[in-house]
Design goal:
Blueprint (H helix, E strand, L loop, with lengths): L11 E2 L9 H4 L9 E2 L2 H12 L3 E6 L3 E5 L6 E5 L2 E6 L5 E8 L7 E2 L5 E2 L9 H31 L2 E5 L1 H7 L2
Parallel strand pairs: 7-10
Antiparallel strand pairs: 1-2, 3-6, 4-5, 6-7, 8-9
Length: about 170
C-alpha cells in the first residue's frame, strides 16, 4: 500500500488529562499500554474522549478481531481504532467500536449492498492503473474488516461506526 499511504503521516503519543477514563492506562480491558495516534483525526477524537464527561470510558487500539480479506482470501487481524463507552442525555449507556478513516477510503455500497469502486483512471498508464487498483484493494480490505467488526459488535452488544474527517471535525467544534 505504498502509493496511497505515506510513511510521513501524523503520529505520536497522547497523554490524557483524565487517565482514569482511558482503558489503555487503567487496565480495564487487560494490558496497560501507551496511547498512540496515527493521524490528526485520531488525535482530535482522543482529545474529545478525554474532555467530555459523557464519554465514561475509552481506549485506542484495544480490540483485535480476525477477518478474512476479500483481497487475498487469507485471515488477518484487524485492530480497531477506538472503543468508547458513552452515556446519552437519557442516562442510557452504549458501547461503540469506532474506526477513523478518510472519506476517500470509505466503502460505499449500492442498492444491492455491493461495493462501489472509484472510476478507473482516464490516463491508462501502468502507474495510474496500479494506483487505482491499490485504492480499490484498500476499499475491499476496509469492507472486509468492517463486516467482521459489525458481526462482532452485533454479537456483543456494541455499535460499530466509521467516522470520517468531516464527522470528527463537526463533533470537535
Amino acid at each position: 500500500m505504498g502509493m496511497i499511504f505515506s510513511n510521513d503521516y501524523y503520529k505520536g503519543k497522547f497523554f490524557p488529562k483524565h487517565p482514569y477514563k482511558c482503558v489503555n492506562l487503567n487496565g480495564a480491558l487487560g494490558k496497560v499500554s501507551d496511547i498512540t495516534y496515527r493521524s490528526s483525526w485520531e488525535l482530535k477524537l482522543m482529545r474529545f474522549c478525554d474532555k467530555y464527561a459523557t464519554i465514561l470510558e475509552w481506549g485506542s487500539e484495544v480490540l483485535k478481531l480476525p477477518y478474512i480479506s476479500e483481497v487475498d482470501g487469507k485471515q488477518h487481524m484487524y485492530i480497531t481504532d477506538f472503543y468508547m463507552k458513552c452515556k446519552d442525555v437519557y442516562g442510557n449507556i452504549d458501547k461503540y467500536i469506532i474506526e477513523v478513516k478518510p472519506e476517500s477510503q470509505m466503502a460505499k455500497l449500492n442498492e444491492h449492498n455491493e461495493l462501489i469502486y472509484p472510476d478507473p483512471p482516464k490516463t491508462r498508464s501502468q502507474k495510474a492503473l496500479l494506483r487505482w487498483q491499490e485504492k480499490c484493494n484498500v476499499i475491499r480490505t476496509n469492507n472486509s474488516k468492517w463486516k467482521a467488526a459489525r458481526r462482532w459488535c452485533a454479537a456483543n452488544g456494541y455499535i460499530f461506526k466509521v467516522l470520517t474527517e468531516r464527522q470528527i471535525l463537526n463533533m470537535c467544534k
